[in-house]
Design a protein that fits this description.
Length: 255
């Protein structure tokens, strides 16, 4: 099982949208996929049609040792499986203080690693214990970024965390790349910022994916339908972008 985490401490950059599209797109290619919703706001679960208020067993209970991970996984109509984190994870930084708390997720995922080809982890817009757990469990990080003035602000801090994870928790963690989302190539400002983002990425030893995800109405439509782009809008341009991105990602992580 290859584990990929979507991370950026900034909100609204497309972590959840990309998690959904990546899980659905890989499933569409015939892979067995587990999506993990580590954001206590449960956006990914909701976008996949799972009502978290009704979910009694969540990753919180798994981390507390009160539930098994296999019983907590929900098979979705969309074709992939979901491991819901749940609202109660919002206190995770204070609830989980024991030694080894960085490894809660990687231990849980070890139990089911044989059942999946890919695990896609969506994270909250913070660099707290949940994101640390995700990065400790992951093989690759993808950093979604919007091409705006503030995009670069958090990148150094995020890279600092990744370096610490490599040093203390997960030596093999790699940055798969930076993914530009909500991209509008007709705007000169987007092009100009793409250049500076590429320069910043180089300094961090990361690459920007050649494929950018354009802005598209299909994204919101599909979200409202609690479905995914590949099921509901296979011909939309933004779906094609995600498909190209997945091909590029697969090439990067196979080599
Ligand atoms: N390519 C896109 N085109 C149009 N809207 C998008 C696109 N990607 C994301 N969005 C919208 O932007 C908002 C934030 O995206 P989201 O994936 O929830 O970000 P994050 O998880 O990083 O907070 C959502 O309402 C989503 O519908
Ligand atoms: Mg999100």
């Amino acid at each position: 099982m290859k584990t990929i985490v979507l991370s950026n401490q900034k909100g609204g950059v497309g972590k959840t949208t990309t998690s959904n599209a990546l899980a659905a797109g890989l499933n569409n290619r015939g892979y067995r996929v587990l999506a993990v919703d580590l954001d206590p706001q449960c956006n990914l679960s909701l976008s996949c049609g799972v009502d978290m208020l009704a979910a009694e067993e969540t990753l919180y209970h798994v981390f507390k040792g009160e539930s098994g991970v296999k019983e907590t996984i929900i098979p979705l109509k969309l074709g992939f499986d979901l491991l819901p984190g749940g609202l109660m994870l919002s206190g995770a930084d204070m609830d989980f203080t024991q030694t080894g708390r960085e490894y809660m997720l990687s231990e849980a995922l070890e139990e089911v690693a044989g059942n999946y080809d890919f695990c896609i982890i969506d994270t909250p817009p913070t660099l707290g214990v949940l994101t640390v757990n995700a990065m400790t469990a992951a093989d690759y990080v993808i950093v979604p970024l919007t091409a705006d003035l503030y995009a670069l602000q958090g990148l150094t801090q995020l890279n600092g965390l990744i370096n610490n994870i490599r040093k203390y928790c997960n030596r093999g963690l790699q940055i798969a790349g930076i993914l530009l989302t909500k991209y509008n190539d007709r705007q000169n400002i987007s092009k100009a910022l793409k250049g500076s983002i590429e320069q910043a990425a180089e300094k961090l030893g990361a690459q920007v994916f050649e494929t950018c995800i354009r802005e598209g109405v299909a994204i919101r439509e599909v979200q409202l339908m609690k479905s995914d782009l590949f099921t509901e809008a296979p011909k939309a341009k933004v779906t094609q972008d995600y498909n190209d991105f997945i091909s590029e990602l697969q090439e990067r992580i196979d080599n």
